[in-house]
Amino acid sequence: MLSRDFADPQRHANWRKLPAFSDQVIAEVFARLSARGVFCQVNTVLMPSNADDLPGFPGLPFWPALDLWHLIPVKGAMAKGWTEESRGRFAATAAELGGAPGPGPTLISPLPSGFAELPLAEIRGSRPTEAAVRGRSCTVELAQLYIDASGHVLPCNSIAWEQRRTIGFGNLHEEPAEAILARRSRALESSHNSARLGCHACDPLNFAANSN
After folding, report:
1. In the predicted model, is pLDDT for residue 163 greater than 90?
2. CA distances from 66 to 19, 44, 92 (A)
3. Triad 210, 2, 200: Cα angle to 5°
4. Which residues pair with 46 in a beta bridge?
């Protein structure tokens, strides 16, 4: 899985405050992984500042090797930058990209969850309230796990930073992966996070789609 928020590698690097990596090198790595049958995915944080940049992604040299492109709506203060105009432009762009033929990944966008139809105030809202998440279960953690840059193994990538050690299943720098995965299995069999701690980092749109 690769995080890529702008088609231009230098713009992405500046945004993430990371070195700029060669797209050709990334393409070679993805090609080798794809040839082995490894599922290859790119995640893009969808923001008002990059929504108009999305048509440039399919031209990236590693695009044909990808299986999935996931557009994840931005959370926090930046979500307040959405306007009706920018949201409408994104909806049209996403629909066009999703219907484009040829090699490349399947596009997963927030449109099916109501991104284009919900009141703009809900799209701008950064996080669901504690009352909204308490007592509700999440289906995402049953099908995936997430390892952050610090080695924390988490139910997903929308756990608030301040809760990562509390809600996480362990840290790869501190104990073997086998022990962490065994702890995850035991946790998922119980109501390990019935209070939904950390879920306030999940945007309301995704929470509505993924919870029950």
Report:
1. no
2. 22, 13, 22
3. 35
4. 73
Task: Report how far residue 175's alpha carbon sits from residue 20's, in angstroms, rounded to the nearest whole number.
Answer: 31
β-strand pairing of 2-3 with 41-46? parallel
Residues composing the chain: 212
Nearest of 65, 62, 43, 58 to residue 93 by alpha carbon: 58
> What is the pLDDT of the chain when averaged over all its residues?
81
Query: Is the full-model pTM beyond 0.70?
Result: no
CA–chain centroid gap for 29, Å, is 21
Residue 65 near residue 93 (C-beta atoms within 8 A): no
| pLDDT score recorded for residue 57 | 95
Between 199 and 39, whose confidence is greater?
Answer: 39
CB 40 within 8 A of CB 82: no
Virtual torsion, Cα 138, 81, 53, 31, nearest 10 deg: -20
What DSSP assignment string belongs to 45-66?
EE-TTTGGGGGGGGGSTTGGG-
Is 22 a residue whose pLDDT tops 70?
yes
